[in-house]
Every structure is written in C-alpha cells, then in structure tokens.
Design brief:
Blueprint: H1 10-24, E1 28-32, H2 35-39, H3 42-53, E2 57-59, H4 80-89, H5 114-120, H6 133-141, H7 153-158, E3 167-171, H8 178-195, E4 204-209, E5 227-231, H9 238-248, H10 258-279, H11 283-292, H12 300-310, H13 337-341, E6 345-348, E7 351-354, H14 371-397, H15 399-402, H16 407-414, H17 424-429, H18 433-441, H19 449-466, H20 473-483
Parallel strand pairs: 1-4, 1-5, 2-3, 3-4
Antiparallel strand pairs: 6-7
Helix pairs in contact: 1-3, 9-10, 9-11, 10-11, 10-14, 10-20, 11-12, 14-19, 18-19, 19-20
Length: 485
Amino acid sequence: MPPHGLPRLPGPNSHVRRIAHDLEAGLNCVWVLPGRLVGDGYAEELFEELLGVLPHHVRLPEPEQGIPEEMSPPVETEPVSRCWADDLTVLADYDDGLGAVWSPDTLAVAQPSAASVASSGPAPGLGGRGPSITERLAVVVKAEDGADGRLDAVSCLVHGATRTPPVVAVKAWLETAPDETARLLRRVSAAVKEAGLPPEHRPRILLLVRLGDLPEALVDSLDEAVTAVHWWWGVLGRLDTAIVVRESQSTNRRPLRGAAAVRRRILDALRTEITAEVSGPDLAMAAALASRWDGCLSTLGDAIADCLGQTSTAGAAGPPSARRGAAVAHRPELALRAVWDAGAVDSWEGQLRYHASCWTPSSPDAPLPGLQAKMVWQAQNRVLLPLLDDARAEFADSLVAAAVHGPVQLALGYGPRNARSENPAADIAEMELGDIWAAVCHGQVRMNKSDRNRLMRLRHARNCLAHRSPLNDDEVRKVCDALAW
C-alpha cells in the first residue's frame, strides 16, 4: 500500500468525496466495502478520511463500550418488536421501497439466548443486558425520555433534539444484530420523509457494511430518494496503481547522459507500466512486484510467483462467469460478490481484473492462461507506440529529399491509398514504417546503412505490437537502441 495511505490516492480520495457530497446533500449513505479491506485495516483509514471532511458528525458507540449508567433506559416490560411496530404504524402510508424486505415477519426482533448473553458478559451500566443500537444512538443525540417512558432517539434526531443535524456514523461489522442496524436505517429514512425536512435539515446515517452485515435484499432495494449506496467497485484506477509502483521502486542509481539516459528512461517506463498492468487494482501486489522485479520479461513470471507468496489475497480457484458489461456497472453483480469480498476480483479501468493466482503461468491450475502476455503487450503498446510514431514522423520528414524518382512518384506508389499528386509532401508525411521500409527495399529512397538498420528495428517492433505480440527482452533492447539513436 502507498506509504502516505490509501485515502490519499486519487481514486479513493475521489470516492470518499463523492460520499461526503451525498451526505451534505441530505442523503443517508450505505458504504459497501470488501471484507479484505476491512480485515486489513484500510477501511478504518477510509472511515477517518471521510469523517475528516464532514463538518458535523457523531460516532455511534461500539456495542462493547456500553452506555453510561445515567443514560441507561428503563428495562422494557413488553417485547421490543411491539414498540417498533407502534412506531411504524404512524408511517404506514410511506413507501420506502422496502416492502418485500420489511414484511411483518421481518419486524420480529430475535432475543439473545441466555448462553449468548452469558458468553458476551454484561455491558457496562446495563445489569447484563447489552445496549441496542437505538439505545446507543440515544446517547449520542442526548435523547430524553418520551411520554411513554421510552427513549425515542430517532424522534429526537429527526425533530431537532440536536441543534445541528448530524451525520451518525455506524460501522455495521461491529454490530451484533444486523436486523437492528437495518431497522435504524429504515426508521430514520421513513421519519425524515414523514417530517418533510429539506436536505440541509436532515439527520443522516452513514453506514459502513460488508456483505452479510445487512439483510441480503436490503442494499439492492434501498429508496434512492433518501439513501445512496456506494460500492468499493472500480474505485482504483491505473493512476493509483502507477503511483504505488513508482513509490515502491528504488531510485538510488547513478545518473546517465545522452543515448544511455534515453534508453534507461524508456526501460523504466516499460517496467513501471508492465508492473501496473499486471498488478491492476491489487496495490499490495503492485508494491511487492515493483520492489522485486528487475524489468526483464524473462524473470517476470518468477517475480509474480514470489509476490503471490508474500501477499495475503486468496485467489479464486476458478473465476465465476460474469455478464458482458459487468466491469462498468456501479456495483459487482451477484455472481461476483463472494470473490469480490475476498479481494479476488474488481473493476479496473473498465475491465474485470482477477487476482494474479487466476492467470499467472506459474500456477499449474490457473484457469485464465495467456493473460500475462496480453497484459505485457498492452503495457508495451502504451509506452512504445507514441515513441514509434514520433520516429516514423522523423523518417517521413526526410523522404521528400531522399526520393529517387521524386516525391510525386513516391507518394503515389507508397503513400496512403487516397494519395494525390497535388500535395505529395502531405501524403509522404502520412507513410507508415512498413511503407517507408518497402520504398527503401525497392530502391525508391536513398538511405544509409545505419538508418536502414534503425528503420528495420522500428518496423519490426511496430509490426509485433500491431499483431498483438509482446516484444521479448532482445526485441525490447533493440527497439530502445533504435529510439535512443
């Protein structure tokens, strides 16, 4: 990961600010993060970065923290589910798009067993009964006892018990009752709609979740008018990976001059681009590969295999099939969510990118063979094609004077198909490396031996890349020599 932190990378930073914008616009936000990101601790960094840009927020106390004795609510003598049902009858006319999720059966609150209460131990100040999420919300909004003797935290939150409507931040993976967490989100959403509050006066819930932290059907069916859902999907891009790569590479080398400096610059660009391409959204792989790989294609497979032993993501035994266009959607489709949660697949630059264990040739059971060569070819294209075109233009500029039978004959014989004799210089300027080479071989252009050798190397490299064939180490060395002439 980057030394300065994941949230500082352009992609994650933009993602965090989009969530902040939605919160400022008066929307609740559900932020769905992969389990690996939570387990590795990076979700905490992102959480702190987001809270740092929110002007007014409160953190919901964690369940094990309990609540102060003086804020403890009275013990209910009736089932909690009945209290919730009483509250919800007032909102019966409001459709929040969750009818299927919130059926009467769903409203029943499961009571913890005696064994589970005993194993978890008593919460501070509650005489052995752990504080519910609503009771802890009452603490942060300083709710008062309602007329019926119950704490009505949601009403206090919505109707102005606090001077400034806050963002209440909840990390759902710390909650022990997912149904209660979902109910809180639903109650606040419905109460806000009932009150008709304008966006700037709405309290909002920021809910960080993993798969399974909320009922399965809830996240995909939330009312978009009051709640925005943000998936950690397609957040990282090539720029993020390239930054990690460059920061992880050694820079302790002596300076070079002339052609040697040009050659090193091209080789460094190829090494960085190939490392970023094969790593994709796996920043741990990017950092490890950048520090281990020497830039030779012959050692790339071994370097990737070595990095796989150092990184902790478990690759998919076989990537699931996904529909066309899944990578450009705003969330992973159902078939991909389990491997996405494990950190084994993500959307990166509009493509589905699987963990390296799915495609590296060093894995005997890799289900996606040939991808490494494709990635190397794509990276070489991005680095070399602009340089090859500059070299082509340089050769083309010298052809008018070097044409044996004049520029008109050269343009008509070897220029573009729509070449016209009225402007042969413009047609000659568009000649490809292969056309220039053909004119030289047929004696239509005068060229010395060193330039012929250079043109031959450039043409060979351009043809390989045009036919989706990556250059090997020897071919890379030759094209770098030709470009650094």
